[in-house]
Structure formats: structure tokens, C-alpha cells
TrEMBL record:
Entry's Gene Ontology cellular component terms: membrane
Listed Gene3D superfamilies: Rhomboid-like
Family to which this protein belongs: Belongs to the peptidase S54 family.
Protein name: Peptidase S54 rhomboid domain-containing protein
Residue span, Peptidase S54 rhomboid domain: 402-553
Protein source organism: Plesiocystis pacifica SIR-1
Alphabetized UniProt keyword annotations: Hydrolase, Membrane, Transmembrane, Transmembrane helix
Domain of life per record: Bacteria
A GO term for molecular function: serine-type endopeptidase activity
Keyword Transmembrane attributed: yes
Membrane topology: Multi-pass membrane protein
Transmembrane segments: 6-22, 34-50, 56-74, 350-374, 410-430, 442-465, 471-499, 511-529, 535-555, 567-587
Length: 770
């Protein structure tokens, strides 16, 4: 595994720890503080291990995998095992999870979970004995409440409804179940089986009026509770309507479960034959997770075969009125859920995430440094200028250098952290945007915002050039702009969270989502603020993306006529096709050839004129950098630096009495102490384009390999230039690692070849655009 790839895994591990830490602190997921502290320490260790000792990094990565990632994977597996009735597996998986999460306190839950394993192996009576023993030995009130809940669940599991109801009413206050949704669902069914519909109605009212009724995430549980009550009240119409229109999935129910509820409703309405026929369909509809549903259906059919149910009688007027109210509430709830699911299945959000990840993967596998980014479709100000003023000439070459890169650059990420950040932002914003506006408008607001922001920045760029360097820095667009998609989606989601746009969203859920999205937006702007000339995204592009998103989201109502929806689908499809065509054009050109022939920037450094692309930026001497060689005063390839590598062109003036010594780089003479840090050897083979600058003759072009602690860390090519008066000046091409010279060897060779002593040396280094 290469060092860069290993560092990517460490960063990913740190992000996993951060997400786990935020979840524990925000949701209070029943995890003790000891494990929270452990996850925090592993987050710090994973960050410190990046670019550090490999042994320490392996330990940090292994610890995160064992104590954070594996337990997170075991939790859904335990839930699936429970849903499939594999109760012994629930016990084994829970024990493994508790073992891997030291300090979490999950070991205290193991005796309760062990009862599920006993239930699966030995049956209800053995599980009851186990829980009663735990209750006799426990002195903790909260733990005792959990144990008695399990005892009640065991009675319900064995369909011993009367015993379960009696145990609940003996141990708990009447409103306790309203605070425990899963217990409430079981108790509702027990009241229905025992024909205590008045008690079931009281429990459902308490559930609706309690904390569960105000939680957006508890909508499915509330819907299931209403459906259970209606089924046992014999309300065939509302239940059959929900099954016929297949709205049961909006409540988190399977088709087999919905058929079971319909059969129960028919049974309690006195339609015995129809109930038996409906329950007979459950076997064919049941999936792997419907084992309990299958058993319940078969039990009801046996009851229907053994004896005719007694006459249920008519419901009391007050109860009948409440049944009608519950039916209307269920219809409204499931319709709202169906609208959300229909309008926003998250297909586009997930598609954008997959697309961004795929482009990042292609770039990672292809490599090539900064020039590799351009070949992938990154934006280059040089290529844009050439296409804008027509210097490259007519045809696909000029077109590919300009507008197509406006589309392709918004898909490109350079580092994993930025990719994961934007993926999370798109996913979170998509929960609001795509579920309310639908896939077409989600595609337009995300991808369209990014393209519009980039295009706006480029359109105002000529005016900024004429206004000066300070103004141009506001519009200069870096090589990539993938974060603009996230900015557009976040701003659109914030617009939709305005109470007038979506009054049905609960205030608490609205506030929580708005705060999170606002923080993401601020973080995105701060992270992507332009630095070092070509880094980041210009403020003009960020403003353009946000402006497009606001106008597009606010100008159209949430619900549109069918014809308008179709028009937007066509616009989204055209936008997507334009992106695919842009990639085809951009990938068909050779940007290095264009940059060799056309470089818009002329920089004067230490009296030497260098013609370079606009991605090159002036840098001062700096030793505290994440490279094995310091920054030397001169020019740095900003595009290469964006990929985490270093290529710099330094101008090294020689003293009057100094001379170039064989086997010693002039770089050592200009930076004190560097010779003590690095050792030097003659360089091996260099790229063909740079060979003339290393074999020009005695005392002229030279190349060296720089070593640190026995590891080759950099390569230096030195090209002396004679001055009319005084000692020569050396133009040094420095790459760390040395293989970076392969990324754009022809371009670097052209820069060295064009280097010339200025006729009017300036006192300070400066650059100008021609």
C-alpha cells in the first residue's frame, strides 16, 4: 500500500470517528462516556498518524476498525437477525459488539439480551424464568423497568395476551407505554385481542398526545399504532384502502404484514370467509423477515377453523366516532408520507454522489498530478483565456479549452476529505430538496448551481483582469469546483426549510436541520475560500451558485403541474447530456501541448524572466511545509501543489566569488543548514524532454537526487544563465518527490528553455499577464 493511499485510509478512519462522536454526543444513544472518550482519542490518533510513523498509523487504523467500524456493522446485522427470528444470533452479535466497545456500558445489557437467545432455543417459559431471576436480583429501578418490559414482551410473543396486560397494569402507570413506542404497539395488539378497545383508544390517544406524536422520526410507529387500532376495531374500509393503494410501505410495513392487518380487520368485522382467504395469502407474500407474521396468520386461521367468532356487537357511538377520526388521521399521514416518497426517492442525490466518487476514483487511478487534473477536465485559466480570445484557433481544440471545462470541473475533487464532506452535504440536503422538489429539480439546483457559479466567475473575469490583481483574485476559479454542487443543494434546502414554504415540518425538526445545514454552508465557504492564487473557489463562483439556487428554489412553487414537471425533466436531462458531452471534448485534448505553446503569465524573479502558466504562483522562502524539501523563493506550480505534490522553480543568484561546484547543488549555497538535512547524489534518468538541461556540458545543466534518512525525497535540475555583468544566475527546477517531473516534463522544459535574464531587473519579484 502506497503512503498516499494509506493516508487516505487514515483520513477516512478519522472521519468515521468524528461522525460516531457527533452521533453519540447529539443523540445520546445509550453509550457511556468511557467509549465516547475512547472514540475521541482515536480521532486524534488517526489525524496525528497522517504523514507520521507507519507503525503508529497501522495501530491507529486497526483500533478504529475494531472498535468503531466493526461494531457499527454488527448493529444492523443484529437487527436483521431479530427481524428474521434468529434470536440466538442476536445474542451472539450483541456480545461481540459489547466486547469490541470497551467503556460503552453495553455489557450491562447482555443479560437482558441473553433472554432472547433463551427464547429462541428453549421457548417462552424458559425466557420468562430467566427474566424473573434477573428481576429478583436487580436493585436498579431503570434496569428493573427494562426487565419487566421484556417479561411483558415474552407474554405477547407467546400470545398470552391477558397475562401480558395484567403484568403491565400491575407494574406500570397507565401512561408509561406512551413513552415506549415498541411496548405500546404490542400492548395495542394485546388490548385488541382481548377486546379492550376502550383501553386501546386511551393508549392511542396518549401516544398521539405524548412525545412520540411530536417526533418526526416516529411517524412510522404512530402510523402502525393507528393501523393496529383500526384493524382490531373492525374498520375494514380504511385498512383495505391502505392495502389496495399500497401505502403500507410508507408506514414501514411489508406486504405480508399489511395483509395480516386486513385479515384481522375482516375477522373482527365478522367477515370470516373473507378473513380466511386474506390470511391464506400471507404465506405467499411473506419474506425472510416475516416469520412472526406468518405464524400469526396461521394462528388466526386455526382460530377461524376451530370455532366461529362470537358476535362482536356494534361499537359505542363515542368509540365509533374516534375510529373515524383515527382512520382520517391515518389516511392523511400515509398520504403525506407517500407524497414525500414519490417526489423524492433520493435517486438523483445518490447518483450525484456516485458520479463524484467515480470521477475522484478515475483521477486517483490515473494519477498525473496537476496535468492529470487538466486531462481529467479541470479548469485552467490559460486554456480559458486562449479559447475566449480565440488564440488557439477554431475547432474542437479551442472549444474544449473553454466552456466544456465549466461543466467538467464541477465534478472533480482533489482530496478525500473534501469529497466526503461534499457527499455528506449532498446527502443531508437531498433529504429535504429531493423529497420535496423531486429528482428533476434536485439535479438542476445542484448541478446547475455549480455550472452557473463557475460560468459567472469566468464571465466577469475579463473585467476583473482590467481592474487589477486584487479584483481578479475575487473571480479567479481554481482547477476544481465540485463543492459548488453542495453549496447549491444546501442553499436550496435552507430555502425550503423556511416556515412559509413547508409549514407541515415540525418546528423542532426544522430547527435542527436548518442549524446543521447552516454550519455546513459556513464550513464549505471557509474551506473553499481562495488561497495561494489558484486554491479554492472564487467568491464570485460561490455567490453565483448560491444566487442560482435561491432564485430557482423560491421562484417555483413546491407542487407543479404535470406539464411543468415534464419540462423540468427535459431541462435536467439536457444538463446531464451537456456534462457528458463536455467530458468527451475535454478528454479528447492534450492540455500540456497547448500550455507549452501558450503561457499567459510572465514572472520576473531575481532578475530572470520566466514565462509560466497562470497556475504558477509566487512564494517566499518557507521551511515549515509538509514536504521533505522547503519552499524556495520563486514560483510554485499551484496545480501540482493542489494535488499534494511540490514542483517549484527557484532563481538562485550566485555571489561574485562563488562558483558551481561539481557534485554540489547551488541550492545548498542559498539556504543555510539545508546541506545538514539532506544528502545528494547524481540523478538517475530524467524525462526525455528535460535531458537537454542535464547533459548540456561541463558546468552547465546539472541534475541531482536529494536524500533524507536514506530515502530519495526530491530531484533538482539546475540551469545556469549568464548575465551581461557579474556571476551567473541558476534557474533550479525542484520536485518532491522527483517523479513529479514526469507529470508535465514538456511544459517544465519549455519554461527552462524560455528563461532569460531580464533587461531591466526589478527589485522585487512580480508577475504580469500578457
Amino acid at each position: 500500500m502506497t503512503g498516499a493511499l494509506f493516508d487516505h485510509f487514515l483520513l477516512l478512519a478519522a472521519i468515521v470517528c468524528a461522525v460516531s462522536l457527533v452521533k453519540q454526543l447529539r443523540e445520546g444513544s445509550g453509550i457511556d462516556r468511557g467509549y465516547t472518550v475512547l472514540v475521541g482519542a482515536q480521532l486524534v490518533a488517526a489525524v496525528l498518524a497522517v504523514d507520521a510513523n507507519r507503525f503508529f498509523g497501522v495501530i491507529a487504523l486497526s483500533a478504529v476498525v475494531l472498535t468503531v467500524i466493526l461494531p457499527a456493522a454488527l448493529e444492523p446485522l443484529a437487527r436483521q437477525a431479530f427481524a428474521r427470528g434468529r434470536l440466538s444470533w442476536v445474542e451472539y452479535l450483541s456480545r461481540a459488539r459489547a466486547l469490541l466497545m470497551p467503556g460503552s456500558g453495553l455489557d450491562r445489557q447482555l443479560p437482558i439480551i441473553a433472554g432472547l437467545g433463551i427464547l429462541g432455543r428453549e421457548g417462552v417459559d424458559a425466557a420468562l424464568r430467566h427474566y424473573r431471576q434477573l428481576a429478583d436480583a436487580s436493585e436498579d429501578s431503570s434496569e428493573l423497568a427494562l426487565i419487566h418490559e421484556q417479561i411483558i414482551s415474552m407474554f405477547f410473543h407467546g400470545e398470552r395476551w391477558a397475562e401480558g396486560i395484567a403484568h403491565y397494569e400491575r407494574r406500570f402507570q397507565p401512561g408509561y407505554a406512551a413513552l415506549r413506542p415498541n411496548l405500546a404497539l404490542g400492548l395495542l395488539r394485546a388490548y385488541g385481542e382481548a377486546r379492550h378497545l376502550e383501553r386501546a383508544a386511551q393508549l392511542l390517544r396518549a401516544l398521539e398526545d405524548g412525545p412520540v406524536g411530536s417526533q418526526a422520526r416516529a411517524v412510522e410507529i404512530l402510523g402502525q399504532a393507528r393501523l393496529t387500532f383500526l384493524a382490531y376495531a373492525g374498520a375494514v374500509g380504511p385498512v383495505e384502502e391502505l392495502v389496495r393503494e399500497r401505502r403500507f410501505a410508507d408506514l414501514g410495513l411489508s406486504e405480508a404484514t399489511a395483509a395480516l392487518f386486513k385479515g384481522i380487520a375482516l375477522q373482527h368485522a365478522g367477515a370470516t370467509d373473507e378473513a380466511d382467504a386474506t390470511l391464506a395469502e400471507v404465506e405467499a407474500l411473506a419474506g425472510p423477515k416475516d416469520q412472526r407474521v406468518r405464524v400469526a396468520a396461521e394462528g388466526l386461521r386455526e382460530l377461524l377453523r376451530d370455532a366461529q367468532p362470537a358476535d362482536r356487537g356494534a361499537l359505542e357511538p363515542e368509540l365509533r366516532s374516534y375510529v373515524e377520526i383515527v382512520a382520517e388521521r391515518l389516511r392523511a399521514l400515509s398520504s403525506a408520507r407517500a407524497l414525500v416518497q414519490k417526489r423524492g426517492s433520493m435517486r438523483v442525490s445518490y447518483g450525484l454522489i456516485v458520479g463524484l466518487s467515480a470521477v475522484y476514483g478515475v483521477g486517483l487511478l490515473a494519477g498525473g498530478g496537476g496535468m492529470g487534473l487538466l486531462e481529467l477536465g479541470a479548469l485552467s485559466e490559460d486554456l480559458w483565456r486562449l479559447a475566449a480570445v480565440g488564440e488557439v484557433g477554431a475547432g474542437a481544440q479551442a472549444w474544449a479549452g473553454g466552456w466544456p471545462r465549466v461543466f467538467t470541473s464541477v465534478w472533480i475533487h482533489v482530496d478525500l476529505v473534501a469529497l466526503l464532506f461534499n457527499i455528506y452535504a449532498l446527502w443531508l440536503a437531498g433529504q429535504v430538496v429531493e423529497r420535496l422538489l423531486g429528482p428533476a429539480r434536485t439535479l438542476i439546483v445542484s448541478l446547475g448551481s455549480a455550472v452557473f457559479g463557475t460560468a459567472m466567475s469566468l464571465l466577469v473575469l475579463p473585467a476583473m483582469w482590467s481592474a487589477g490583481d486584487a479584483a481578479a483574485s475575487l473571480a479567479t476559479v481554481g482547477a476544481t469546483g465540485a463543492n459548488l454542487m453542495a453549496v447549491g443543494a444546501i442553499v436550496s434546502a435552507l430555502c425550503l426549510l423556511w416556515p412559509r414554504r413547508t409549514p407541515a415540518i415540525p418546528t423542532r425538526a426544522r430547527r435542527s436541520m436548518a442549524v446543521t445545514l447552516s454550519l455546513l454552508l459556513v464550513a464549505s465557504v471557509l474551506i473553499d475560500w481562495p488561497m495561494l492564487g489558484t486554491f479554492g473557489v472564487s467568491p464570485v463562483a460561490l455567490l453565483g451558485a448560491a444566487l442560482f439556487s435561491v432564485v430557482f428554489t423560491v421562484s417555483l412553487p413546491t407542487t407543479l403541474p404535470t406539464i411543468a414537471d415534464k419540462v423540468l425533466v427535459g431541462v435536467g436531462a439536457a444538463l446531464l447530456l451537456a456534462n457528458l458531452g463536455a467530458f468527451a471534448l475535454a478528454w479528447g485534448e492534450r492540455p500540456e501541448d497547448t500550455l507549452v505553446a501558450h503561457r499567459a503569465q510572465v514572472c520576473t524573479v531575481e532578475g530572470v524572466e520566466l514565462r509560466v502558466p497562470m497556475d504558477f504562483v509566487l512564494m517566499a522562502v518557507e521551511r515549515d511545509v509538509p514536504f521533505d524539501v522547503p519552499l524556495v523563493g520563486g514560483l510554485v506550480d499551484g496545480l501540482e501543489l493542489r494535488t499534494g505534490s511540490l514542483v517549484q522553480i527557484a532563481v538562485l543568484p550566485m555571489d561574485a566569488d562563488a562558483e558551481l561546484r561539481e557534485g554540489r547543488p547551488a541550492l545548498f549555497d542559498t539556504m543555510d543548514g539545508l546541506e545538514r538535512e539532506l544528502s545528494v547524489t547524481a540523478a538517475g534518468p530524467v524525462p526525455d524532454a528535460l535531458v537537454p538541461f542535464t547533459e548540456a556540458g561541463e558546468g552547465e545543466g546539472r541534475s541531482f537526487e536529494l536524500w533524507r534518512n536514506g530515502e530519495r525525497v526530491a530531484r533538482v535540475i539546475e540551469w545556469p544563465l549568464a548575465r551581461p555583468e557579474g556571476p551567473p544566475v541558476v534557474v533550479a527546477l525542484i520536485a518532491a518527490p522527483g517523479t513529479n517531473l514526469n507529470h508535465a516534463a514538456e511544459l517544465y522544459a519549455a519554461i527552462l528553455d524560455d528563461a532569460a535574464v531580464s533587461s531591466s531587473p526589478e527589485a522585487r519579484s512580480s508577475c504580469r499577464v500578457e
